[in-house]
Amino acid sequence: MAFLKNLSVSVGLVIIVLLFFTAIFANWMAPHDPIRIDLQSKLMPPGGRFLCGTDALGRDILSRIVFGSRVSTLIALSCVFIGALFGVTLGIISGFFGGRIDEFIMRTMDMILAFPSLILAMAIAASLGPGISSAIYAVGFVQIPMYARIARGSTLSVRELNFVLASRSFGASSWRLIFVDILPNILSPIIVNATLGLGSAILTAAGLSFLGLGAQPPMPEWGQMIAEGRANIVSGEWWVPTFPGLAIMATVLSFNLVGDGLRDILDPRLRGRK
Q1: 158: nearest Cα among 176, 178, 174
Q2: Is the CB of residue 78 less than 8 Å from the CB of residue 136?
Q3: I want to staple 12 with a disulfide (CB 3.0 to 4.6 A). Which of 43, 68, 133, 258 is the partner?
Q4: Are 121 and 139 in contact (CB under 8 A)?
């Protein structure tokens, strides 16, 4: 399979599989309780019983990273689901019906895009109150315009193809044309951007948690772990924020690698260049 022959894609896929495996079996893979406080073991360097060291409360960083993969995976999947569900729906309606409906939906999307995504997510999360659900709603909302634009552009090109015009001539309803003829034929760019969006969602949600607007203590979440350990950098305990940061970097990079590979496979304009 050409998709798996790409080394970078294979590496990204391995990391993603490991991430989901870790998230599912975190209870068995974590060597210690991620929220158990042990002040006698606080700020222990990596090695021995604690492979990644401990934080200022004596909690095992490796165990918190393992359980944090479950939180980050849940956030990413939920955000992409919300963004894709509403974005694709609005984009197809806009592109198919056109006219004032198209104008209203696209100008609304432009208004959302006028705000920096992180700032807008911060405002939404702050208005809803700190918590993981607020972070999910906030990050999912700011992703809606991306999917709406992609779905609209694809719908505008597909709705003029011969098989859609033939279905229309036979009296097919608008909703049948949308769900049977158009939607299956615009899924490729949506799938690619959803894969890339998973990494973006993890990064944005980690940023919200870092600012205190996402996951709250003692829940192990990578961004919140970095926030708790940032003061330790000055005092020399580099491992406290470093390992959660590496987990975020590896996860986001893996989704980007797989997303690029999917784009090369699913985009017919790029197939001939490989």
Answers
A1: 178
A2: yes
A3: 258
A4: yes
Q: Which phi-psi region, left, alpha or beta, contains residue 180 (left: φ > 0; alpha: ψ -120 to 50)? A: alpha
Contact 198, 44 (CB under 8 A): no
Lowest mean pLDDT among 56-70, 89-103, 123-137, 254-268: 254-268
What tokens does 3 get?
């998709």
Phi-psi region of 221 (alpha: psi -120 to 50; beta: other; left: phi over 0): beta
Domain locations along the chain? 71-266
Q: How far apart are CA 182 and CA 118, in angstroms?
A: 32
Gap between the Cα atoms of 268 and 85, Å rounded: 25
236, 44 Cβ separation under 8 angstroms: no
Residue for token digits 């580099």?
A: 238
Sole residue written with tokens 């615009």: 186
The first and second tokens of residue 45, run together, are: 């360097």
User: Which residues have CB under 8 Å from 204's CB, separation 6+?
Assistant: 79, 117, 118, 121, 139, 142
Which CATH code fits 71-266? Answer: 1.10.3720.10
How many other CB atoms are there within 10 angstroms of residue 150's CB atom?
20
pLDDT band at 168 (very low <50, low <70, confident <90, very high): confident
- The rounded distance, in Å, linking the Cα atoms of 181 and 98 is 17
